[in-house]
Design brief:
about 300 residues; alpha/beta; six-stranded parallel beta sheet; about 25% strand; globular; binds ribose-5-phosphate
Length: about 300
Amino acid sequence: MSSLIVGAPSQASLTAAIAAQCHAEHCVVEQRRFPDGETYIRVPADPADRDVVYVAELARPDQHLIGTLLAIATLRDMGARSVTLVAPYLPYMRQDRRFRDGEAISARYVANLLDQHVDQLITVDPHLHRLGGLDELFTIPAHRVAAAPAIATWIANTVQNPVVVGPDAESAQWANAVAEALRAPSVVLTKERSGDHEVAVTGGHADALKEHTPVLVDDIISSGMTLVRAAERLRRLGAAELHCVGVHAVFAAGAAERLNETFHHVVSCDTIAHDSNAISVHALVAARCAELLTT
Ligand code: R5P
């Protein structure tokens, strides 16, 4: 039997892109809330004896995790031979250790939850900071798709003489990969975070910006404070025009306003649907799915 690509309702476009690349049938689950707030799920296709890809929405995870687990359980219960989870944004990854006594290590617990229910996972640029790789969280094969080639193409088409800037040490991995693809220089600043919105950014030097336009690149845009403080630092070093690119447009309340006041362009990849999505990684995710389904 051929593969079946099933998506959460908000993932219709990525689901169709994966199906086209895999030459497979596709559908989206029927999902709604019962009057008491519980989630209703129905799979409108037959997954029996088929390798199924489930394309999940895991941004705002507290709203979407139960629906994802119910959809996967339904696919299994209806006889799917295997389930590959595509989660373009993998949530809870930043709480990857106990910073204060008694805290939940959420990255580990959420990973455990997914790990038990699917055969493999595909995600885009997961936030791996203190962890060396997804294999430290998952026992199933967990595959990373890098957004760097798509981000580099957007920068090459939009910004003259760019210098790629990472706002903090964690972002060095994305900033350096994008700079390498662009054959452009890169700089990494230093960040200290003392609260959800309290961020200080230092480092860099004026010479790195000479005759170059800075493009800040980070994985997650949440409150936006990391990029706002990094922009202030770059202005003090002499930057005039500033652009920023985030892989995952989490955009907590107030972030879009904050960033639009600060930057010439604020753009993101389409791992989370948002007005700032100007860079598509759907083709990269679909290609990786097709590769994995044929091996
Ligand atoms: C942190 O380590 C991440 O790479 C991002 O820099 C961070 O999550 C951005 O958060 P915010 O937009 O709230 O500053």
